[in-house]
Each structure stands twice: as structure tokens, then as C-alpha cells.
Amino acid sequence: MAMRPLGGRLSDRIHPVPVLTVSYGLVAVCALTAAGGLGGFSPPLVRGVADSVAHDYTWGLVLLAVTATGAGTLAATAVRRRTRAAAGA
Q1: 3-state secondary structure string, the chain?
Q2: Residue 46, CB half-sphere, CA atoms under 13 Å: how many?
Q3: pTM here?
Q4: By the 8 A CB rule, do 64 and 43 touch?
Q5: How confident is the model over 34-78, as pLDDT tens digits?
Q6: Residues 6/26, Cβ–Cβ less than 8 Å
Q7: Taking Cα atoms as reference points, which of 89, 31, 40 lies closest to residue 64?
Q8: Is residue 6 within 8 Å of 14, Cβ to Cβ?
Q9: Region label for 55, one of left (φ > 0), alpha (ψ between -120 and 50) or beta (otherwise)
Q10: The Cα angle at residue 34 between residues 32 and 40, in degrees rounded to 5
Q11: What is the spatial distance between Cα 50 and Cα 72, in angstroms, rounded to a whole number?
Q12: How far out from the chain centre does Cα 54 lie?
């Protein structure tokens, strides 16, 4: 909301397309940074909880491996199918 007046002024002085392109690029970078922060925060937290409960890191590492396998499977199947469908359309 606070950036709207600034974006309006920039769009008045510069063509709106470059302003929107840069704005969307910044939003994408911020979203990826937030996702990376979550990915860097969650695994140690899960491993710590598993260690507190079972007094062993094995279950935390098993959960991490299962999650990585699930993410890899999702990327190899559903995302690839969706990409192929979009390319053929």
C-alpha cells in the first residue's frame, strides 16, 4: 500500500512496463528468499524435536529423507506433467 504512490509516480515518468517488470521481479526474489528461510529453519527444528522425543537423531533424518524424496517425486511427476501440458497448449 505504501509503495503504490511511488509506483504511480515512477509509471508517470517512466513507461509502466519496466516499472511493473522490476516490481514483479522484486516480489519474486522476496518470495524465494522467504521460502529459503523457511527451508533453512524447518529441518533443524524437526530434527531437534525428534531428538528431544526419541533421544536419537535417526527419526529426524528419516523425516528429512522422506520429505526430500516426496519433493523430488512431486517435481519429477506433477510439475513436469504441468510443464509439458503448458508447452503443448
Answers
A1: CCCHHHHHHHHHHCCHHHHHHHHHHHHHHHHHHHHHHHHHHHHHHHHHHHHHHHCCCHHHHHHHHHHHHHHHHHHHHHHHHHHHHHHHC
A2: 16
A3: 0.49
A4: yes
A5: 877 777 888 888 888 888 888 888 888 888 899 889 888 988 888
A6: no
A7: 40
A8: no
A9: left
A10: 100
A11: 23
A12: 30
What is the rounded CA–CA span in Å between residue 63 and residue 70? 10
Determine the residue type at 47. R
Burial class (CB in 10 A: 0-12, 13-18, 19+), 11: middle
